[in-house]
Amino acid sequence: MPRMEPRNTAVFTLGDLRKQLEMLPDSTIVGVLPDSAGEDLSELRTAFVQRVRAEVLVFRTAPPAAGILFEAVSRDDRPHVRKLIIGGADVNGPDPRNPLFDGATPLTLAAEGGLVEMTRLLVQLGANVDARSARGWTALMRACNAGQLETARTLLEAGADATLVNDEGYTAWGRCPGNNVALVALLAEWLARDL
User: Fold this and answer.
1) What is the DSSP annotation of 45-112?
2) Is residue 142 within 8 Å of residue 112, measured between CB atoms?
3) Are 145 and 175 in contact (CB under 8 A)?
4) d(CA 87, CA 37)
5) pLDDT value at position 194?
6) Cα gap 8→17, rounded to integer Å
7) What is the model's pLDDT at position 4?
8) Please, which contacts does 117-120 make with residues 24 or more away whose CB atoms are closer than 8 Å?
9) Calpha distance 85→83 (Å, rounded)
10) Which pLDDT score, from 0 to 100, does residue 104 have?
């Protein structure tokens, strides 16, 4: 059991912490409730496990700017997104607004929403086009799943790998709606280039 220190700091032995973390799948995002929250899940917050050194693992909460970045991406507010990322917001950080979500990045949100110019901006600002969520989804898979032809094209032109497979066994091709002829043709063209 953790020993509680002042101001909501939990102290674990390294052995206890390692045992707990080893039971979690890779890239797990942990939801934490403040002591005062009780049964009210509205105060659920995200914590990330961060490896500082091989023998030191730390839980940290998402920086305040992280949620703001995702909100700005959702609104397609490119000037604000640029300012936040240049100011230090993590362009590849997982979505902290809902710890039950699988950790998609700002690029995933933009691509899935069909925000072509936002997708381009995030790539220009250093977004990893092949970043994977905790379940292995990439921005390209999400764009294809949502039928977003132009953001899929933008990601492919930026170097996204259409052959990556998520935890469910799907590639971007496998997530294309069959009735989206243009999207299926785009992926077929890009996959043929690799042959």
Assistant:
1) EEEEEEEEETTEEEEEEPPHHHHHHHHHHHTT-HHHHHHHHHTT--TT----S-TTS----HHHHHHH
2) yes
3) yes
4) 32
5) 67
6) 17
7) 37
8) 117/76, 117/78, 118/73, 118/76, 118/78, 118/81, 119/151, 119/154, 119/155, 120/154
9) 6
10) 84
pLDDT at 186: 94
**pLDDT for the residue numbered 3:** 38
Residues of the chain scoring pLDDT < 50: 1-9, 27-29, 31-34, 36-38, 40-44, 52-53, 100
Q: Which CATH architecture has domain 64-193?
A: Alpha Horseshoe (1.25)
DSSP state of 131: -
The pLDDT, as a whole number, for residue 37 is 44
How far, rounded to the nearest angstrom, does the alpha carbon of residue 61 sit from its chain's CA centroid? 15
Beta-bridge partners for 45: 32
In the prediction, which pLDDT does 50 show? 52
pLDDT at residue 33, as a whole number: 44
How far from 47 is each of 118, 143, 175, CA to CA, in Å?
A: 27, 27, 30
Enumerate the domain spans of the chain.
3-61, 64-193
Tell me which residue has tokens 């994977």. Answer: 132
3-state secondary structure (DSSP) of residue 173: helix
